[in-house]
Amino acid sequence: MSWLLDESHLADLSRGATLLGTGGGGDPYIGRLLVAEAIKEHGPITVLDPDEVDDDLFVIPTAMMGAPTVMVEKIPRGTEPVLALRTLEAHLGRTAQATMPIECGGLNSMIPLLVAARAGLPIIDADGMGRAFPELQMETFSVYGVHASPMVVAGDRHETVIVDTGDDDVRMERLSRACAIQFGGAALIAEYAMTGADVKRVAIPRTLSLGIGAGRAIREAREEHRDPFAALAEFFAGTIYQNVRPLFRGKVSDVERRTVGGFTRGGCTVAGFDGGELELRFQNEHLLALRDGEPVCVVPDLICVLDDTSAEPITTESLRYGQRVVVLGISTPPIMRTPEALAVFGPAAFGLEQPFVPVEELVSERFSEPVAV
Amino acid sequence: MSWLLDESHLADLSRGATLLGTGGGGDPYIGRLLVAEAIKEHGPITVLDPDEVDDDLFVIPTAMMGAPTVMVEKIPRGTEPVLALRTLEAHLGRTAQATMPIECGGLNSMIPLLVAARAGLPIIDADGMGRAFPELQMETFSVYGVHASPMVVAGDRHETVIVDTGDDDVRMERLSRACAIQFGGAALIAEYAMTGADVKRVAIPRTLSLGIGAGRAIREAREEHRDPFAALAEFFAGTIYQNVRPLFRGKVSDVERRTVGGFTRGGCTVAGFDGGELELRFQNEHLLALRDGEPVCVVPDLICVLDDTSAEPITTESLRYGQRVVVLGISTPPIMRTPEALAVFGPAAFGLEQPFVPVEELVSERFSEPVAV
Questions:
Q1: In 3D, which of B48, B183, B203 has the Cα closest to residue B113?
Q2: Where is the S-Me-THD N-terminal domain (chains A, B) (predicted)?
Q3: What is the pLDDT of residues A225-261, one digit of tens each?
C-alpha cells in the first residue's frame, strides 16, 4: 500500500539509515535538512510499495556519490540531483514516473526523497544495496541484469556528464568516480533507469520503511527506558534482515582513516571492557570485523558501530578515540547472499581473503542471552 | 576552393604535422596508417576552404586526447572517433555536415581525416590551435566564444561520456581528462560543434594545407639536395606563420620526461656544437626555449626540434640523448597573439613567468644570414 512520508519520519529515517549505512553512506544530517525544506515547500512524498507498482512504470533512481568525509563538508545546492534526473530523462527521451534509492544507508536514503519532493514524483520503497556500499556497481540491480548506463553525474556548478559503458558497471563506476573527484570529491547522480517489472525482480524491497523502523525502534526504546539493542534485535527479527548479533563492546582505541581515490579507507580498533579487541576494516563502509583475530562479521552482512548507551549509530568518519561503543552484526537478506551477489559485493570484491560466512553462523550469541553486550 | 586529399598527401602531412606539433600532438604514424586504410576503403577526402563554407554548415570537430607517450603505444581501434561524432550528433539531434581538426599538430592532423573518410564527410582546412597544445580549452574556438560543451569522450571499448560544462572550457578539460585517464590515458573526442559562420570567425585558416606544405618543403629540399631549413623558412614566409628563426644547433645532452596527470611533462638540454646551451621545457608540447638562460622563443610561438641533417621533426617523447638537432622558432599568426588568446595559451597559462615576446623580436637572425645554423 502506498503511504505519505512527511517531516515527522525524517529523524527516525536519519538514525536508521545511518545504522544501515554500516559506517558509510555519508551522514544523513545535511540531506535531512534539505528534504525537510523540500517537504515544507512541496508537501509530503508518496511512497510506493515495490510489489504494487505497475510493471511498465518508468523509474530513475537518484543518489549522491563520493567520499563520506567529503559529503559531510561539501553541502549540495539541492538542485543537482533533480538536474541529474532531468538530464537522464532528456537523454533517454522518457519522463520518470518515480524515483528510488540506490542504497538505503546514510545520505542516500535522503537524496531520492529530495528529488521526489522537488520533482513531484513518488518514491519506491526499495533499493539496490540493502545497506551502503562504496562503489556503484555493487547493486543487486547490476547483479540481476539491470545496468547503470546511461548514467548522469552532476556537479554543483550544474555541469553534467552522461556516462555510457553498456553492460560494464565496473567501468561505469571508474568513469563516474573520476568525474566525482573532479567535482570536488562528491557528485549527484541518476542511474539504473528501469521499469516497475525490473524493480520487483532486482530491488531489495521495503528498505526505506526498514530504515524508518530501525530508527523508531531505537528512539522508542530510549523514550521507554528499554534496552535499545534488544529493541533493534526484536525489530529486525520481523524483517528480511532477521538476525542481529552482538559482536563486541568496548572503547575505540585506534582509528586510521584516509581519503584516497575518492574513498574513505582505513580501520579501527576497539578495546574490550572485559579484555580482547575487535578490529574493523572499512572502505567508506565497514567490511570486516575480526574479534581477537577471528572473523565475526563479513561484508555484505552489516557491521554497525553504535554508542554504547544511546545506541546512536556512528559513521566511519565520526569514529574517535575513546568512544564507548557496541558493535552489532546484522544478517542481509537472501537476495544479497547468492553467489552472483557475493561475486559483486562479497569479501573478494574488496580484496579480502576471508570467505563470506553468514553472521548468524559465525556468532551464536543472541540478545536473549545477555552475554556479550 | 575545395580539393581532394588522397594517400599521396599523407607522408608530407605527417612530417609537417609533427613539425607543427612543436614536440607534442602525438606521433602521427599510427594515425597515418589508419587514414591510408580508410582512404583505400572509402576513397579520397574532400577538403573545404574555410572562407568558402556556407554560414549554416554544421561542423563537429574530432580529435584524440591524452599523453603523447600513451598515444604512440595505445593504438586506437579506428572506430572510436566516428562513435564520438555519432554520439554527439544524437545528443544534439543534428547531423554533422563536416568535421574539422581542433589542432593541426601531430596525430590530431590525422584523426579528423579518419572520421571524414569513414563517415563520408568533408573536412575543413582549419583548426583551433594553429599548432598542438596540451589542454582542450587552449583553442581559438574557446577564446573567441565557441565553447566545447557538450563534448563526447569515447574509449576503445566503445564507452562514451558526454560532458556538458556550459561555457567553462577549463572545467570541460578537467572532466574529460579524468575520463581519458580512466580510458587508459588516451581517448577519442568530438567537441566544439559550430557553424560555418563560426569557423570563419574563430578558426585558424588553412592549417591542414600548411602541414602538407611544410612537410613537402622538407621532402623536396632533401630530394633536390637543398638546405631543408632554408626551404622551410621560405615556405613559411608565404603563410600567416611568416617568420622562421634559427634558435640553436647542438646535441641533446639531457632529457627529463614523466607521464603525470595525463600529460607528458619535462625538459631537455641541447649542448651547442660551438658552446652554450639551449634549455627546452615542455608539457606534451615545447613551451619555452632558453638560450644560455635567455628566452628565445615562448609559447604560443612554435619551438621545433629537427634532425640536424634530414630536418625530420622530433617529438618530445622521441627525444634521446645524443641526437644532433636544429631548433627552430616559428611565429604564430595574429589571431593567436591577442591578449585574449595569450590569456588562454600564453606562457602564464602554463605557469611560466616569462612574458610573451614574439620570436621575431627575440631573435634577429634569419636564414638568409647563415649565422646560427
A1: B48
A2: 9-164
A3: 999 999 999 999 999 999 999 999 999 999 998 887 7
